[in-house]
Write a structure and sequence with these properties.
alpha/beta; isomerase; EC 5.3.1.6; 2 domains; ribose-5-phosphate isomerase activity; 226 residues; 8-stranded mixed beta sheet; binds ribose-5-phosphate; Rossmann fold; Ribose5P_isomerase_type_A; 6 helices; Ribose 5-phosphate isomerase A; 4-stranded antiparallel beta sheet; 27% strand
Length: 226
């Protein structure tokens, strides 16, 4: 893993919003003409979209949520369906938790299922996060998406899970949060993955990410994982 400053100098805007804007602008610079780009979801990605639009690149984008799709289209970005795509050049997305060794929790906005598919399809998956997202170890809650079929049974087998008072995902899944203890994220991820009725969980292993761009108060650190 290598680390390098992604911005030359600190700016006076060290608020959380300023941090989100800086990491998003740093990530936008990684996108090049002709690329097929996966767009994440959330308040950090909201800063990525105008930064990308300003660059006026010839790119095609696929969004992980209706919210991002509408915002990107309104800015003039070319957003289309996932369709038969089997690889993106790059995807850029936010995170709720980021550990020093690259484990993530995503899905605070309930988009983690689509986000994980887009990340897994991308040659380069760039995580952008403000400094509040940096954690030593992952902790609950872990967002989960569940099939409506047999929901009570799935919830009973998961244990320690609370349904979220939000609409179903665009794919019809029920959104909940898992509050079980996380001693080892790989073990928790396997337990969740192996629970029948669970569509996807919000733990992203380090192998999914290639880059993490993390704000550090007044600066930005860009780590390359592979
Ligand atoms: O479902 C939402 C996504 O995983 C977001 O990328 C994540 O919750 C981070 O969102 P934000 O940038 O708003 O903190």
């Amino acid at each position: 893993m290598t680390s390098s400053p992604a911005t030359p100098a600190a700016t006076p805007d060290d608020s959380q919003e300023g941090e989100k804007r800086r990491v998003a602008e740093a990530a936008a610079l990684l996108v090049e003409d002709g690329m097929l780009v996966g767009l994440g979801t959330g308040s950090t990605v909201a800063y990525l979209l105008p930064a990308l639009a300003r660059r006026q690149l010839d790119i095609r984008c696929v969004s992980t949520s209706p919210q991002t799709e509408a915002a990107a289209a309104a800015l003039g970005l070319a957003v289309g369906p996932f369709g038969s795509i089997v690889r993106f050049d790059i995807a850029i997305d936010g995170a709720d938790q980021v550990t020093p060794d690259g484990w993530l929790v995503k899905g605070g906005g309930a988009a983690h299922t689509r986000e994980k598919i887009v990340a897994a399809t991308s040659d380069r998956f760039v995580v952008i996060a403000d400094s509040s997202k940096a954690v030593d170890v992952l902790r609950a809650p872990i967002p989960v998406e569940l099939l409506a079929f047999g929901l009570d049974s799935t919830l009973r087998r998961l244990g320690s899970t609370r349904l979220r008072d939000v609409p179903p995902s665009p794919d019809g899944g029920v959104i909940a949060d898992f509050f079980g203890a996380i001693d080892d994220p790989a073990v928790t991820a396997r337990f969740l993955r192996d629970t029948a009725g669970l569509v996807e969980h919000g733990i992203f292993p380090p192998e999914l990410s290639t880059d993490i761009i993390l704000a550090t108060g007044s600066g930005v650190v860009h780590r390359t994982l592979r």
